Amino acid sequence: MKTVFVVLGTLINFVNADTFSDFEKEYEKSYEDDYEIEDAKQSYDMNCAFIAIINSRSGQRYKLGLNEFADKGFDKFKEESLGAKSPSSSSDRGNKVTFSSNSNSNIQLIQAEGGIGNYTPVTAPPAVDYRNYSLAILNQKNCGSCWAFTALGVLESRMTILNPLYNTVLSEQYLLDCDTRDYACNGGWPMNALNWIFQSGGNSVPAMTSYQYFGFKTKCRTVTKIPMNIIATIQNYTAGNEGTMKQIVANVGPVAVVVSVTSFFQLYKTGIFYDATCNSNCGSVNHAVIIVGYGTDPVTNLDYWIVKNS
C-alpha cells in the first residue's frame, strides 16, 4: 500500500442537529455552569462551520459530521479523549517478549515501532476483513484509555479467531485500576498493557460483566479472571512500512497501532479518511486503535485500512 487511507469502525452516532439545544438533547449533555455552557456553544458553532467548509471541498474523499465531540475544541478533545502515551524508555516501548501458557497456539501482537514479528508469510490477498472476529465496539468516554481498549481488543480478536465460539468482552476498567505500567485515564501504551497482562497480571483478564467500565480509575479489585490460553509473542513493527503491515494483518490478524489524531479525525463521519496535512508534521502519536483489515475501494481505486476505534 502506498498511502494510508482509513475507514473507521466507530461507536459514534451522527445526527443532523439544527441547534445546540437539539445537540444537547441528542447526546444528553450537561454542563457545570454558564461558563462551560458558553464554551461548549462556541466550540459547537466553530465545529459546525468547520464541517461545512470541509464537506464542501471538491473531490472530498470523506465527510465530517456532528457527533458527541462537537461541543469541544480540539485541545479539549485531545486532553479528554486521546491517551497514547509513549514510554520514556525505548525498552519499554516493547522488546520481543515470549510468554508460555497451556496452548499450542502462537500469536503475534504487533504494535507500530521496532522490528518484524516471526511468522510464515503467505501472499497477502487483495482484501482482508476481521470485523466478524471483533467483539463489541465500545466507548472509552472522557478518559484517555484508548491504550487499554486497543490491547484488549487485539486479544479478543485473536481469541475469537482461535475459537469462533469465544464471545467474552474483556474489562478495560481492570487495566485502568490494576495495570502498574500505564496511567489509567492519563494515557498509556498498548505494548505496556500487553506485557503487564502476561508478566504481572497472571496471563488473565476479567470479563467486563464482572468488572464494569466506569471511565475513571478506581481501586484494583480481585475478581474471577479469564485465562488467556495462548503463547503470545509481542513484537514491534517498523512504522511507515505499510507493505509489511499488510503482510502481518493478512498472516497474523488484527494489529494494535498508535497514530497521530488531528482535528479532522475528531469529527469524522463516513468515507475513506485521509488527512493530507498529516505527513511528517503531525507531531507525536496520541491515540491507539486496531487495524482489523484492509482493501481497495472499487470506485476510487484508493487503498484503505479498516480501523476499530474506541
From TrEMBL:
Annotated ranges, domain Cathepsin propeptide inhibitor: 20-77
Keyword Disulfide bond applies: yes
GO biological process: proteolysis
Family: Belongs to the peptidase C1 family.
Entry protein name: Uncharacterized protein
SUPFAM superfamilies found in the cross-reference section: Cysteine proteinases
Entries under SMART domains matching the protein: Inhibitor_I29, Pept_C1
Annotated signal peptide: 1-17
Gene3D superfamilies, sorted: Cysteine proteinases
Record domain Peptidase C1A papain C-terminal: where: 124-310
Species assigned in the record: Chironomus riparius
